[in-house]
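Writing this down once: the sequence line spells out the residues, with the fold written below as integer tokens. This is how one looks:
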Amino acid sequence: MQNYRFQFVRKSSPPPPLFAVHGHHVELFSLGEEASQGLKELSQDGPTAILEAELADKGVKTYVHDGLILPGQTGVMWVTTYGENFGSAAAMLARTNDAFIGARKIPLAMYWGKKQTVLLRVYDSGAEEINESYDYIPAPPCNNPGEEGGTPEGFVHFHPGIFGIADLDVLRDSWGAYAAKMVIERVR
């Protein structure tokens, strides 16, 4: 049994992160492939239940932070592994159409005796068009969960960022090269 402490520091958006511990055969998402229904749901409106169920069907143990982590705040999760060698993370970026922060197949064994920082990139689940319209975005000030707009891209890819093409503001809603960081420390 190995115990890890995960500290998430959010630069943008509040929905809670999901962390999965798994073997090498599991992919939370793959670039260029269609996102699972659970990942689409997470990226569009934030809920993790469908993604948790999908992963449980593959024998994967998941952990979800017990509350929202607002921009600039830190949240801590304690994760226990029983021989799983990898971890993956995902969380919605709330003021977007279908963006999420994520990390895939983080090798957990390398964290024995030291802290390591993992920067979480921003991905687009491909579930809906990037239109930056308040009519299709769940987070305040938009407040439109469950609305889908435009033609979906249909595959996971790196998110291009906020361009101010509709209601979103480039200065308020943008992120840099990453939108969160995760500090991993093996504690036992």
